[in-house]
């Protein structure tokens, strides 16, 4: 009971913040224009600052996190072709939405928020590093999906390189690592200012995600959507945790890996489906369903890990 209480203390506040965002949007207090502007602010400014500050000031060295990074990278590398194979029986127009929803998680907000709730700054720093590695894989897969399924746009490897090089989250993580490597010292006033900006990131982002949810989509969800959600919330965590076990990760690292793996499908999968001319309705259903059910699966998974590593 104690372990389940701990798990709910990690996921529960995130879920309630999403519901508050959904409610505020319903009563007109969070308008679409505000959500759009706030989401851009988070992506371009406050989230990069958060990642930079937490990695730059973390106690652990990068070398100590290599087993965790390897588990995250290899686990994700395995889940991508598995998701691709699971989509083979579907209609062509549904495949891109299924694949994106099945393996691509909302690491930047939900995953980071869970890791921070569970393990504080050290867990957040670990999650940020894993996110950087996995995000590159996500982008590579996005290019492959465009090449195979897009009916509108074709992406090039050059475009991929530019996207990665210009991604503010990856830039922030690389700068933080370089700063640590070269022993850079930042004035306290800059660190304090960075902490002020960082502190608004997760609550604001969660409110925006909640405001963007359309729970009416749940009534129109199909078996295909449930299949993608089951893959994302059950198969992906099992695969990544298997690699974590192979690399002998400690309890906290396994917990961080689980929380990232169990994060719901990323909202960008809906954008990708629309850009490729795929089934954007299916993609939206997968995002909504996975956001709802991830609270249950992540809580149970974290409670189980607590029992195993106790």
UniProtKB/TrEMBL annotation:
Pfam families documented for this protein: Mem_trans
Subcellular location: Cell membrane
Transmembrane segments: 6-29, 41-60, 66-85, 97-116, 128-148, 168-184, 196-217, 229-248, 254-273, 285-309
InterPro entries the record matches: Mem_transp_PIN-like (IPR004776), Na+/solute_symporter_sf (IPR038770)
Gene Ontology cellular component terms for the protein in this record: plasma membrane
Topology term for the membrane: Multi-pass membrane protein
GO aspect biological process, one term: transmembrane transport
Record keywords, A-Z: Cell membrane, Membrane, Transmembrane, Transmembrane helix, Transport
Taxonomic superkingdom: Bacteria
Keyword Membrane annotated: yes
Family, as annotated: Belongs to the auxin efflux carrier (TC 2.A.69) family.
Protein name (database record): Transporter
Originating organism: Microbulbifer donghaiensis
């Amino acid at each position: 009971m104690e372990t389940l209480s701990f798990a709910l203390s990690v996921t529960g506040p995130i879920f309630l913040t999403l519901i508050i965002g959904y409610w505020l949007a319903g009563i007109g207090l969070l308008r679409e224009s505000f959500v759009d502007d706030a989401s851009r602010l988070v992506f371009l400014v406050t989230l990069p600052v958060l990642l930079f500050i937490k990695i730059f000031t973390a106690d652990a060295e990068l070398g100590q996190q290599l087993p965790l990074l390897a588990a995250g990278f290899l686990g994700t590398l395995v889940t991508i072709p598995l998701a691709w194979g699971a989509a083979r029986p579907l209609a062509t127009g549904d495949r891109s939405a299924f694949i994106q929803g099945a393996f691509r998680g909302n690491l930047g907000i939900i995953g980071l928020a869970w890791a921070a709730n569970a393990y504080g700054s050290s867990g957040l720093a670990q999650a940020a590093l894993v996110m950087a590695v996995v995000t590159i894989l996500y982008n590579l897969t996005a290019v492959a999906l465009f090449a195979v399924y897009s009916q509108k746009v074709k992406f090039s490897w050059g475009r991929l390189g530019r996207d990665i090089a210009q991604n503010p989250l990856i830039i922030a993580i690389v700068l933080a690592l370089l700063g640590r490597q070269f022993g850079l010292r930042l004035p306290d006033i800059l660190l304090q200012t960075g902490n002020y900006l960082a502190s608004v990131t997760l609550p604001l982002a969660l409110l925006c995600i909640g405001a963007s949810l359309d729970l009416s989509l749940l009534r129109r969800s199909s078996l295909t959507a449930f299949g993608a959600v089951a893959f994302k919330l059950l198969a992906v965590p099992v695969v990544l945790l298997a690699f974590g076990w192979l690399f002998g990760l400690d309890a906290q690292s396994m917990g961080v890996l689980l929380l990232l793996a169990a994060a719901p499908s990323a909202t960008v999968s809906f954008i990708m489906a629309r850009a490729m001319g795929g089934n954007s309705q299916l993609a939206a259903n997968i995002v909504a369903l996975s956001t709802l059910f991830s609270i249950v699966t992540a809580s149970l998974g974290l409670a189980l890990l607590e029992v195993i590593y106790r």
